[in-house]
């Protein structure tokens, strides 16, 4: 039987708690509220799908934030097996996120133009959920918090900037395993990019050169690469999708569009895991 928690933490049958004007399923997942959150501003037949899939992506960002935060904390607690299992779940979510671009890519330029004007200054660049993911994975840039100032999501974005990243936790584990010199700078500003460079690359090289001895760390390295690989694919697919819909036009919200997306598509999370491959 489906159950929910009372304020005291005790389980109770959900069927005994839901309102009479809905179903246990709709009440549990707040489906009635969710399905009222789409408000097209034009008569274009394709605008509802654009809104819905934009909302789906935001929900997936939220789920990935939960999973990557969990994996980071597990690594910090030396629970590597648990972190690997969490990253396994996250990889499936990333696959769904990647496929979500397919629904946008089938919009013809004429179909998108039918409702593009009603977007006004709205742009995916303004997504607080995506910005928090960038910071959580280690791509820290304090300037990127500025667009969210004076919004409801600003404190969450700023808070994420000031938290250790998933890559910070992975490098901390390498240090505790003796593959990386401990970071003795107790006052390191975690809002700045993670510790990186030649010594980090050398630590990963040691893992890759002896995958039997460092079996669990080797699995971690490849799990992180899966994460970075999926994000690289997501960004590139975003670029191609925008090219297909807009060509070389400026992006929504005054962004550069394709030119800007082309630049960010070259970024890679966990760069030493990429560069070490040239030395093996």
Structural features, described:
- The protein is an all-alpha fold.
- The protein is built from 13 helices and two strands.
- Strands 1-2 form a two-stranded antiparallel sheet.
- Strand 1 (3-5) and strand 2 (11-13) form a beta hairpin.
- Helix 3 packs antiparallel against helix 4 (80-99) and helix 7 runs parallel beside helix 8 (154-161).
- The chain is globular and about 60 Å long.
- The mean pLDDT is 89.
Secondary structure elements and their pairing?
Blueprint: E1 3-5, E2 11-13, H1 24-28, H2 31-34, H3 47-76, H4 80-99, H5 101-105, H6 109-116, H7 128-137, H8 154-161, H9 166-176, H10 198-209, H11 215-246, H12 258-264, H13 271-275
Antiparallel strand pairs: 1-2
Keywords summarizing the entry:
280 residues; mainly alpha; 13 helices; 56% helix; 2% strand; oxidoreductase; dioxygenase; EC 1.13.11.11
Specify the biggest β-sheet. 2 strands, antiparallel
- The level of helicity is 55-70%
Number of beta-strand segments: 2
SS class: mainly alpha
Radius of gyration: 22 Å
Instruction: Report the span from N to C terminus.
Output: 54 Å
Query: In which order are the strands of the major sheet placed?
Result: 1-2
Give me the strand/helix succession: EEHHHHHHHHHHHHH
Shape: globular
Question: DSSP helix count?
Answer: 13
Q: Which residues sit in consecutive blocks of at least 5 with pLDDT less than 50?
A: none
EC number: 1.13.11.11
Family: Belongs to the tryptophan 2,3-dioxygenase family.
Organism: Streptomyces galbus
Function: Heme-dependent dioxygenase that catalyzes the oxidative cleavage of the L-tryptophan (L-Trp) pyrrole ring and converts L-tryptophan to N-formyl-L-kynurenine. Catalyzes the oxidative cleavage of the indole moiety.
């Amino acid at each position: 039987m489906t159950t929910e928690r009372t304020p005291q933490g005790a389980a109770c049958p959900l069927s005994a708690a839901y309102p009479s004007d809905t179903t246990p399923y709709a009440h549990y997942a707040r489906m009635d509220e969710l399905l009222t959150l789409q408000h097209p501003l034009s008569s274009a037949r394709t605008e509802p799908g654009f809104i819905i899939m934009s909302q789906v992506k935001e929900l997936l960002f939220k789920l990935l934030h939960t999973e990557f935060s969990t994996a980071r904390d597990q690594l910090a607690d030396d629970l590597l097996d648990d972190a690997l299992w969490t990253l396994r779940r996250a990889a499936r979510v990333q696959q769904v996120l990647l496929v979500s671009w397919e629904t946008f890519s089938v919009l013809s330029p004429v179909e998108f133009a039918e409702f593009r004007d009603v977007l006004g200054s709205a742009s995916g660049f303004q997504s607080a959920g995506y910005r928090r993911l960038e910071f959580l994975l280690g791509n820290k840039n304090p300037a990127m918090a500025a667009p969210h100032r004076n919004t409801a999501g600003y404190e969450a974005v700023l808070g994420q900037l000031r938290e250790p990243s998933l890559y910070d936790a992975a490098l901390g584990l390498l240090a505790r395993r003796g593959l990386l010199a401990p970071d003795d700078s107790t006052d390191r500003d975690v809002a700045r990019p993670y510790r990186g460079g030649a010594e980090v690359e050398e630590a990963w090289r040691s893992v890759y050169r002896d995958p039997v001895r460092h079996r669990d760390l080797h699995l971690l390295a490849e799990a992180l690469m899966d994460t970075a690989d999926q994000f690289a694919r997501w960004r590139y697919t975003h670029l191609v999708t925008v090219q297909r819909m807009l060509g070389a036009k400026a992006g929504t919200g005054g962004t550069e569009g394709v030119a800007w997306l082309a630049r960010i598509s070259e970024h890679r999370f966990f760069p030493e895991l990429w560069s070490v491959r040239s030395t093996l």
